[in-house]
Design a protein that fits this description.
268 residues
Length: 268
């Protein structure tokens, strides 16, 4: 193995129980999946949970851009054999275990070089993430939107599936297509659903019930409601500022909603 980037970050000591791995998915883009992933990481970080985020949206990786960080290495470097997966982690807000921060393993932003990644390479990433699980309390995989085989493989490699939807019909139909394909291909995870950008909590619950009824009737299972996130104008403001919402707007309603979701997912 060739030399790693010069960084002061050290791999945290192993925990007694490996971290559960959460795959955060959506049927279509634009529903706030990446934003939810990073905001959940902030929420768990503030609760004292050592958290790792892995950008698995390998075609259009952008978590580092959304957060305004510049990683020294990324998954592309790992797959090229230049470094090990743990050496690709970049600390965000001080890093995992430090004042609400977390660690990030970035994708390959602005390239698209990994859009046609082979499934054996996806399996390699999944195996590498699993080896890091004893060093964290929570791991979040931010998947690509859609139903590509790589998305399904990442989802099957997780311990829990978090599915982000909105009230848009295309969001619901595409999310349904994803869970249907996962089930047809042997997936056993019952998704925990987050309704994002809801006009009200009541409206969000109605959207969830609509989705849950379709899953129950045609797929034979009822997903769980992880929570509803209110539409909040401070969210796009934070994204434009490349700053996590709880840092830029700590009193935002959307972050309060995510805190409740983080607590609910801790029981998954």
């Amino acid at each position: 193995m060739t030399s790693r980037p010069n960084t002061a970050r050290e791999t945290p000591a192993p925990r007694i129980k490996p971290a559960p791995i959460f795959a955060v998915a959506s049927g279509k883009g634009g529903v706030g999946k990446t934003w939810l992933t990073t905001t959940l990481a902030c929420a768990w970080g503030r609760a004292g949970r050592r958290t790792l985020v892995v950008d698995c949206d390998l075609g259009l990786a952008n978590i580092d851009v959304q957060l305004g960080v510049r990683p020294q290495a990324d998954i592309h470097s790992v797959l090229r054999g230049w470094i090990d997966l743990d050496a690709a982690a970049t600390p965000v807000l001080g890093g995992a275990g430090r004042g609400g921060g977390f660690d990030l393993i970035a994708g390959h932003s602005g390239s698209g070089a990994l859009a046609a990644i082979k499934l054996e390479d996806v399996a390699k990433i999944c195996d590498g993430v699993r080896t890091l699980a004893p060093h964290y309390d929570r791991i979040l995989l931010d998947l690509s939107a859609g139903v590509d085989p790589s998305v399904q493989r990442f989802a099957r490699g997780a311990d829990a599936l978090v599915l982000v939807i909105t009230e848009e019909p295309t969001s619901l139909t595409d999310a349904y297509a994803l869970v249907k394909l996962l089930k047809l291909n042997g997936g056993q995870l019952i998704p925990s659903v987050v309704v994002n950008m809801a006009e009200s909590r009541m409206r969000g619950r109605k959207v969830f019930e609509q989705f849950a009824m379709a899953c129950n009737e045609y797929l034979g299972f009822r997903p769980k409601l992880a929570g509803v996130i209110s539409r909040d104008p401070r969210v796009p403001d934070a994204i434009r500022a490349q700053t996590p919402l709880p840092v830029r707007h700590p009193q935002a309603q959307a972050f309060e909603d995510v805190l409740r979701i983080a607590e609910a997912l801790s029981e998954v």
